Amino acid sequence: MGDATDLVLERVDALLHAHPPATTEPAAFWAAQFDAGLAWVQFPEGRGGLGLDRELQGVVNQHLAQAGAPRPEPVNLIGVSMAGPTLFEHGTPEQQDRYLRPAFTCAETWCQLFSEPGAGSDLASLATKAVPDGDAWVVTGQKVWTTMAHRADVALLLARSEADQPKHAGLTYFIVDMHAPGVEVRPLRQITGDAEYNEVFLDEVRVPDTQRIGPRGAGWRVAMSTLMNERTGLSAAIGAQRGAGLIRPALAAWAQVPEAERRAVDRDRLARLVIEADILRFTMERSAQAEKRGVPGPAGSMIKLGFGMVGQGVAEFCLDIGGAAAALVDHYDMLQPDRFTHTGDEELMDGNVAKGFLVAQSLTIAGGTTNINKNILADRVLRLPPEPRP
Ligand SMILES: Cc1cc2nc3c(=O)[nH]c(=O)nc-3n(C[C@H](O)[C@H](O)[C@H](O)COP(=O)(O)OP(=O)(O)OC[C@H]3O[C@@H](n4cnc5c(N)ncnc54)[C@H](O)[C@@H]3O)c2cc1C
User: Fold this and answer.
1) For a disulfide at 314, which of 125, 197, 234, 250, Cβ 3.0-4.6 Å?
2) CB of residue 112 inside a 6 A radius of ligand 1
3) Among 51, 74, 104, which residue terminates a domain?
4) In angstroms, what is the span from residue 38 Cα to ligand 1's centroid?
5) Of the residues 68, 87, 104, which one is the last residue of a structural domain?
6) What is the tens place of the pLDDT at every residue in 235-287?
7) 23-64: per-residue pLDDT in tens?
8) Is 147 near ligand 1, meaning CB less than 6 Å away?
9) Catalytic machinery residues
10) CA torsion sign, 311 to 283 to 298 to 77?
11) From the CB of 375, is ligand 1 less than 6 Å away?
């Protein structure tokens, strides 16, 4: 690892020297980062990586952040955190050459067409149909909660291609052009007032077979790889050191309270949150080690569960110690944002506490609900017997 770390650090220095973040346009910086193999270091050379251990991406990101470099995730979270790794694992070389660079530079932004009105937690029961027609597929159905679809150029789509197969076996995975005829995006307003996500209607959309990722009927396996990669996004949000990431707004809010007004009960709450954030970070590190040893585990569910609980605890803490003023919102216009609000921590840090609190409510739903993660832990970690049927 030592030599590999030296190599990436040399590359990071060279990148920062040739493209100082303060004077370089973000898109130009991301293009240079991709070409230097520092986009996804685990990918092969020429495709945004250096063929190194995935963990080294954390080292790269940390050094770039310290130098004030822009990150593409707020603009294109799904492209960078999910589409890139899914294409790396399951895409054809042609698909990788076509899509990886524009995803990282944000020249093309992505969304994820998985959830449907009748298929969220039980994703495998989805009903959007993909019917083969010559060298293409005809896709018809309705998706929902599609984050950033109003800005997206391309989408990851999971659809039912084999009506006669059991539900998990009947799915195929595609890349869909969001500007193709038959794709309609309608905004859905959230509790925050914004419409960051949407409904997407697909009416006989033609998708060339070259846009299929993985074999016909193997969509579930490809989708699992997409969902596993959501964790990478979480690790950035959780933060690599004590005091960074998810817990940061709580510490910042506490620092604003004058010494004489600090109540023991709030100090106790804060201490608990800091400990929980630490446990979350250690669990994340342990799971990365286990993954390296090839030991698969349900750590992703544990991390997602803790992430929602700590994130909401932090937002609640900020709202409570901010007093009545923190509950005010300055407007309730429906915005369709250009960037993800993500965890709400930016809003909390900016003093937009009520909005940050509302955004945080989604942390126990998006990317797998708390109930579902508890089910997985009950099943796979605690080995509890299934609930008796009445
Ligand atoms: C902010 C946000 C952004 C999102 N972005 C996207 C996106 O970009 N693309 C996309 O495809 N989807 C997206 N989603 C959808 C998300 O994946 C789903 O909301 C999630 O999987 C839950 O599905 P559901 O909303 O249909 O709830 P349901 O599955 O209907 O669940 C309703 C309630 O029942 C509980 N429940 C369901 N089944 C069980 C069970 N077996 N045991 C115990 N309890 C159960 C759930 O925990 C939940 O409390 C987003 C959601 C949010 C909130």
Assistant:
1) 250
2) yes
3) 104
4) 33
5) 104
6) 778 887 888 889 999 999 999 999 999 999 999 999 999 999 999 999 888 88
7) 999 999 999 999 999 999 999 999 999 999 888 998 999 899
8) yes
9) 230
10) positive
11) yes
